[in-house]
Design a protein that fits this description.
- By secondary structure, the protein is mainly alpha-helical.
- It has two domains: about 130 residues, no CATH class; about 50 residues, no CATH class.
- The chain contains nine helices and two strands, in the order E-H-H-H-H-H-H-H-H-H-E.
- It has a two-stranded antiparallel ribbon.
């Protein structure tokens, strides 16, 4: 026998209908958000700290530029001397080249420190934040999809929800849902409307969803008392 539930509720939920489960989900989302913010803040602080090591390289670059400027100026001045200007100007070229080499070495050091700073910052984010985010996202998406399936089953047929309760539910709750005798499987095979509703509620409660207040079936309508809003 198949029991058809009256349609109710949205088909897609981001949070549970029951307050306790919903509060747990909200707190988890907030905790993940706070953790990600802390990790990103730490990564930025580490990046800035490592960038401070660029100071020696910048100083070396400035020194090389000054040396090159001095020799370039001297070469230009010597170039104005009649007859021997070219020779005198050429004599200052090695000094200018040395200044250029010093400046290039300083710039290379600055770029290397910047690369290390960026790499360390990303490493912190990847190691500390990405695993948490991926795990959280996987769990949230799985819950949303399962909740959607449960809502569809709640709107259409409780048999599937009752069967899930038999296979996934806590044994104590399943026995309690079966009523006197505790034969939940037998009641499910017989299609006992009241037991099917209670078993469906076990599965819906496990997902943090509210149960149905009534069902429509070819048998007499079975209605259960108002459910508690939370366990």
């Amino acid at each position: 026998m198949s029991l058809t539930l009256a349609p109710r509720g949205p088909r897609l939920l981001l949070y549970a209908e029951r307050p306790r489960r919903r509060m747990l989900q909200v707190l988890t989302d907030l905790a993940v958000a706070v953790w990600v913010v802390l990790v990103v803040t730490a990564a930025i602080a580490l990046h800035d700290t490592v960038l401070a090591l660029q100071a020696p390289g910048r100083g070396l670059t400035d020194a090389g530029d000054r040396v090159r400027g001095v020799f370039d100026g001297a070469a230009q001045a010597a170039g104005g001397v009649p007859f021997v200007g070219d020779r005198l100007s050429g004599a200052f070229s090695p000094g200018a080249d040395a200044g250029t080499a010093i400046a290039d070495a300083g710039q290379a050091q600055v770029e290397a420190v910047a690369a290390v700073a960026t790499g360390l910052a990303w490493l912190v984010v990847v190691v500390a934040a990405v695993p948490v985010l991926t795990t959280w996202l996987a769990l949230r998406v799985r819950w949303v999809l399962r909740a959607r399936q449960s809502l569809a089953a709640r709107d259409l047929d409780v048999d599937l929800l009752a069967l899930r309760a038999l296979t996934r539910g806590a044994p104590r709750r399943v026995r309690r849902a079966a009523g006197p005798g505790g034969d939940a499987a037998g009641a499910w095979r017989r299609g006992d409307p009241a037991v099917l509703i209670r078993l469906a509620d076990v599965e819906l409660r496990r997902m943090g969803l509210r149960g149905a207040t009534s069902v429509t079936t070819s048998a007499p309508i079975a209605t259960r008392p108002d459910e508690r809003r939370d366990e």
